[in-house]
Please model this.
Amino acid sequence: MSPRPVPRPLAVAAALLVAAAWALHTPAAAQPAAASFAARIEQLSEEGGDFDTDNLISNERSFLEVIPALKAAAGTGGAYIGVGPDQNFSYIAQLRPSLAFIVDIRRDNLLLHLLFKALFQAARTRVEYLALLTGRAVPDRADSWRDAGIDRLVAYIDGARVEGADGLQRLDRRLHDAIAGFGVPLSTSDYLTIQRFHHTFVASGLSLKFESRGRPPRAAYPTYRDLLLATDRAGRRWSYLASEPDFQFVKSLEAQDRIIPVVGDLGGTHALAAIADLLAARNERLTAFYISNVETYLSGGKYAQFVRNVRRLPHDARSTIIRSVFRASISASEIESVDDFLAYNR
Model:
């Protein structure tokens, strides 16, 4: 059995003044609810692997183009599984699963999602979330922004100045305390990595691009601004930050510890199998599995194990795979039923 052919494809000076704060601050005691969140991460995760990018944002311009077809094919509810950073939230916002798992071979992706979780906890609205993510001041009367279009939010962030050193230090401490409260065992190095990720968003703002280590961003890759403003082929915007109800749904799942970051190899033997067992015990079906272009990196026995993992996941005729194919650094997103995928890979 072999995979179907898939083509391969600043931090601000003020922020640096507070870099030591995260490492020196004593973590807060985990609450009982957080303990189960941490325990579930430990139960489902396996040993991580290396990858040559921080992957703070997606490099897929096309990821929202499949939303109408995805909603029609997969329906809503059930369980969602995905890889990578916050593009998952847009799929989650539209599919309304009861729980979601973000599985990535990089442990850094777990750390990034702990940052996102802390930001969801700290922010009441979309504009607050974007302001905290990028280190900008929250606008006055933030509640009045609930009905604002994403264009207005983007314009505000683009026009706002980065918080001063004192403001960033307070934000660092606030996020550190929130992350410590999740109960996940983290080292000083982990906290500094999370801080570095956040300060990269602060420094670059909405002009941040996907970047591989040691190589400059490719011109074809979208900025974070591009991703927020992206549409489907009919011109409709589907980002989780494009509407307040979508943002609030994702925020509610985060608050209930129902978005679980997992360190795992899609071609490994533990993480997906453990998730499959959990779904079976909960009598949940797989609604959608976003795999990006991971198939490109699964060769030989890894791909065969991936197919076995997909087969093990509780699924039905509506369960859907979402993938991206890259040609000359430009993504094309597509969907396929799990049944068709498994039939192809008998």
User: Anything to note?
Assistant: The longest helix spans residues 188-204. The CA atoms of residues 36 and 272 lie 19 Å apart. The two ends are 8 Å apart (CA to CA). Strands lie at 79-82, 99-104, 259-263, 286-292, 320-327, 330-337.
